[in-house]
């Protein structure tokens, strides 16, 4: 479920090819009252709750329209785009796994390995200055 405002925002964002940048820490609180404060975090949350760029649209005249089934290739294309933005619903994960060949599944699992974190002093806590320096490297 999402509000009409977020649906419209998501649609405008994907059609306009906007590259939003968070002015803060990419962890802004997005709720009904503060959703307009950061477009980058709002779009990230849209992907996080499962909105996909080429997702199915509900048909407006239900009984006369027959919904077309997507081919496995189309499903894989749409789900891989959602994966790039970090959003997977349980159903999306299920469809993705069923559409993959064993070789593709192994490659997907290898891509899912967390990256090696390179920190000069892993035991030292971050200060504001060290955090800003890590963003510029």
TrEMBL record:
SUPFAM superfamilies named in the record: Glucocorticoid receptor-like (DNA-binding domain) (SSF57716)
Q: Keywords in alphabetical order, please.
A: DNA-binding, Lipid-binding, Metal-binding, Nucleus, Receptor, Steroid-binding, Transcription, Transcription regulation, Zinc, Zinc-finger
Q: Where is the Nuclear receptor domain?
A: 1-58
Q: Does the keyword Signal apply?
A: no
Q: Which Gene3D superfamilies does the UniProt record give?
A: Erythroid Transcription Factor GATA-1, subunit A, Retinoid X Receptor
Q: Which SMART domains match?
A: ZnF_C4
Q: Which GO terms describe its molecular function?
A: DNA-binding transcription factor activity; sequence-specific DNA binding; steroid binding; zinc ion binding
Lineage: superkingdom: Eukaryota
Its family remark reads:
Belongs to the nuclear hormone receptor family. NR3 subfamily.
Recorded protein name is: Estrogen receptor beta
Native organism is Cavia porcellus (Guinea pig)
- What lineage does UniProt assign to this protein's organism? Eukaryota, Metazoa, Chordata, Craniata, Vertebrata
């Amino acid at each position: 479920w999402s509000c009409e405002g977020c649906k419209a925002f998501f649609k405008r964002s994907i059609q306009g090819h906007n590259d939003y940048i968070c002015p803060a820490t990419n962890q802004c609180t997005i709720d009904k009252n503060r959703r307009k404060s950061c477009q980058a975090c709002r779009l990230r949350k849209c992907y996080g709750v499962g909105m996909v760029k080429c997702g199915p649209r509900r048909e407006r005249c239900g009984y006369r329209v027959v919904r077309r089934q997507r081919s496995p290739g189309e499903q894989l294309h749409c789900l891989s785009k959602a994966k790039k933005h970090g959003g997977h619903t349980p159903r999306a994960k299920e469809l993705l796994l069923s559409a993959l060949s064993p070789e593709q599944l192994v490659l997907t699992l290898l891509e899912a390995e967390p990256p090696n974190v390179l920190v000069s002093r892993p035991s030292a806590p971050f200060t504001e200055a060290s955090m800003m320096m890590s963003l510029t490297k």
